[in-house]
Write a structure and sequence with these properties.
Layout lengths: L18 E2 L8 H14 L7 H14 L3 E5 L2 H12 L4 E5 L4 H8 L4 E5 L10 H4 L7 E7 L8 H11 L2 E5 L7 E2 L2 E2 L6 E5 L12 E5 L2 H10 L4 E2 L3 E2 L10 H12 L1 H19 L5 E3 L13 E5 L1 H4 L3 H10 L2 E2 L20 H4 L2 H9 E4 L7 H16 L1 H9 L6
Parallel strand pairs: 1-15, 3-4, 3-5, 5-6, 6-9
Antiparallel strand pairs: 2-10, 7-8, 9-10, 11-12, 13-14, 14-16
Helix pairs in contact: 1-8, 2-8, 3-4, 3-7, 9-14
Amino acid sequence: MSVSELALFSGTPAFAIPLHVGAPNVGDRARLLERIEDILDRRWFTNDGVYVREFEQRIAELVGADHCVATCNATVALELMFRAVGLEGEVIVPAHTFVATAHALEWQRITPVFCDVDPATHNLDPARIEERITPRTTGIVGVHLWGRGCDVEGLQAVARRHGLALLFDAAHALGCSHAGRMIGTSGRAECFSFHATKFCSSFEGGAVTTDDDALAEKLRLMRNFGFVGRDRVDYVGSNGKMTEVAAAMGLTSLESHRQFIEVNRRNHALYTRLLSAVPGLAVLAHDPSERHNWHYVVVEVDADRAGLGRDALLDVLAAENVLARRYFFPGVHRMEPYRSRQDPDALELTVTDRLEASILQLPTGTAVDEASIRVVCAIIAAACAHGEAVARRLAAGGRPA
């Protein structure tokens, strides 16, 4: 592809319909509609119906947990998990994560304390945690970012030394393993997401998995207003229940999850091969000894070697209707309400800031085929090869010649 073919100059956008990061996978449409018809016939739409119970059982079996408590979304799952464990005061979290990880704490008047991440794994760095611990610290939340397992053992060691609760945000990590063990049973509990952008979706949904019987019972009370039976309330709860139609979509997704993983794996391999020819670009690799869902195509952009920075590449791709993302810019520690109440020194998280300035997330999933990936990579290669011309055009407002 020549530079003149880029839409930023005078070319026609490569895609008539936008190519999104996180376009939903659908699975067997007929099977989903069959389940929905059954839900309508049963006239049982919520309150622990047969599909929610089956979905919980299937997730528990997949991750190897004794219990799965399904919820209406993953943010509510996080909130219930944090409250059920009894977190208060301050809790240490990575700054390189989706904002919901912090908001679920803040919403309950628990202060998230942001910690830097490991440059190789992009996950919470155990070596940096102890400098953030204070007398008010009650817990640590690890995030299995991109489906790559945290250093669970390192986090457990820190948590034990200081008597802290250890929990995990596993929103990206369904179907993934760490140290040969499926993610979902580490710490006191782990939280999964079944949002539409995840590789297995329930339209919108979440779940907490745990091996702790008492904690699971408490979570079930909390997601249903604290009700025990028809009329008795034993706890101050909320309404966090998953609906039957959401569970029907979740079950349908699970039935196709191996197919989704295989599509993601092929897409990831093709992106890796094609972009390896572009200096300064590196697709984040995964440990071949572990199971993975391959759902995140994460590219680190070295602007000096690539000829263009990450944000310039985003603009080039956007002109072509490729809606790539810069997860999780600018870093939760630099978002409100967290930024304005922190000391300037606390904002300086060197690794997190570098990643937030260099990471590019590309479309994958069943909505993306091989031909589309080849076009996306050709656009990126052309833009980098003509970096100076592209930078000048962007500086001029990106107007066609």
